[in-house]
Amino acid sequence: MWRNESESGTSLDEVIEQPNPPNTGMGELSEVCPICLESYPIDVLSFHASTCGEGMDPAHHSDAASMTRTEEMPGPSVQRLPATVSAAWANEVDPRKACQLFREELLERNYECPRLFLSIDLFDAEEETDSSLISFFKMNNVNWAAPLKCRLRGDAAVGQGVNRHVLSMAMQKLKTGFSINLGCVALTSLFEGEMEHRVPSAAAVLRESNLFEMAGRMIGHSFLHGGFGFSGLSVPVVTLLTGGSTDTAASALTLLDCPDLDHRETIGFLKNTQLTAQETTSVTDLCLSWDLPVPTSTNHDWLFQELLSHAVLHRVRQPIKQIRKGLKETGIWPLVSNRPDVHPILFPREKNDELNSQTVIQNIHWPQPKSDSDEDEDDAVPLEKVGLVTGFLRQFIEEASPKVLRDLLKFWVGWELLTTNLEVEVVTSKYPVALTCFLKLKLPSHYQTYEKFHQDLMMALSSISSGFGLV
User: Is 469 part of any domain?
Assistant: First the structure.
């Protein structure tokens, strides 16, 4: 369930098709494009937004990026995002610091805007939860830089930890698929292919339902709130998404970028010095179906590139435009278009996104003895117990698989993104709990063996899909 200013429900039919509000007939209204700052009639602004920023004159773009506010134009009462906020992020050498500066300034400028509210009922079926997420991110005419408040019905959790948990859930669904039935399968995946070579699905129903535009909003919104980038995309797809040319994207293509295994095998025949009769027939049939010349003894290399470009880039041209449009609507496009060095942060490689034990341990603030503590001595945990339990935690992290480490961080802070200043406290309690807003993990002091500690902590981690206790 989502709410923006007022609560309302949405059926699955409304999730799949949410048209833009019609013109009210008050004359030809116009809006200012937040990218180029030009005024356009409302009925053509949507089309313009899908291409704005591509091929823009650099000097014009620089001027647009330096503006801090736009002139109010007559039109619907909708909050609009500024093109950008200052030059600080543009001049920052460190790309991660530039991202942080951009986020902080954009969110600060929209701090007093009507907040966005997203509520997830933990007792809903998975299909209903996914429907709520889709409904929220398919909302039109939304200021995505407005303050965000997420709520988990059925859980006592409140605060930023809940926001992190919900954004993590949305990004995970975007990777693995949504439990909505669009007439073919129960699980609908927007991306296909293998790790590091995923491309948008070519299914027409996904394009017609504007689900890729929703995907762009999810990616931009998560990034805007300091969350995950979207890892594992094909490099040529990232090139097109971030405003690169088709020729540059095509030059980076490999066979692994082709998600259709039959097409991949057929196109791969052209790497052979000589084709068998059966291979020639297969390649010829594919060329004719795509209106391309048939193979000859001299055009194998050229034809290989043309077939591969058609199999990967041509089929996902419209989905990429929709994703880019969704990214622009979240307000992050000035950063993306002006800072190519942030692209690996927004669209990281999965191998670089993997957690390891030592990195997690290095970011933990371990308990230290306090000689001047005001804590009641009757409630204080003896130092030997603190040392024993924190030693168990260190052993748990060192032996954990990448998946268990992700679950631990999600339990600890609300999402799987590694955070500095992780806190550990050993307390008198029965089970492990997490104060996700404060990045604090509270561990019971009663453990005498690692086996019991491991059992209870794994039980706690299994609860992350249905809530995560105190925040």
Answer: no
Within a domain: 348: yes
Q: Is residue 468 part of a domain?
A: no
225 contact partners, CB below 8 Å, separation of at least 6: 103, 107, 148, 163, 167
Residues taking part in catalysis: 437
Task: Classify strands 199-200 and 191-192 as parallel, antiparallel or unpaired.
Answer: antiparallel
Report, as an integer, the average pLDDT of 109-134: 89
More confident residue, 262 or 158: 262
Are residues 345 and 373 part of one domain? no
Range(s) of the domain holding residue 308? 254-312
Interval 18-61: pLDDT, tens: 434 333 333 446 665 544 546 666 666 555 555 554 444 433 33
Q: What's the rounded Cα separation, in Å, for the pair 52 and 47?
A: 9
Residue 357 Cα distances to 174, 232, 363, angstroms: 26, 22, 10
> Residue 297 pLDDT > 70, yes or no?
yes
CA dist 37 and 201 (Å) reads: 32
Distance CA 82, CA 85 (A): 7
- As to burial, measured by CB atoms within 10 angstroms (0-12 exposed, 13-18 middle, 19+ buried), residue 49 is buried
- Same domain assignment for residues 223 and 261: no
Would you say residue 13 lies in a domain? yes
pLDDT for the residue numbered 264: 94
Q: How many CB atoms lie within 10 A of CB 232?
A: 18
Q: What is the tally of structural domains in the chain?
A: 3
**140 φ, ψ (degrees, to nearest 5):** -100, 160
Residue 177 Rama label (left phi>0; alpha psi -120 to 50; beta)? left
Instruction: Supply the DSSP symbol for 440.
Output: E
What is the C-alpha separation between 85 and 200, in angstroms, rounded?
Answer: 32
Q: Which residue type sits at 261? A: L
Q: Looking at the structure, do residues 236 and 93 belong to the same domain, yes or no? A: yes
Measured in Å, how far apart are the chain's first and last C-alpha atoms? Answer: 21
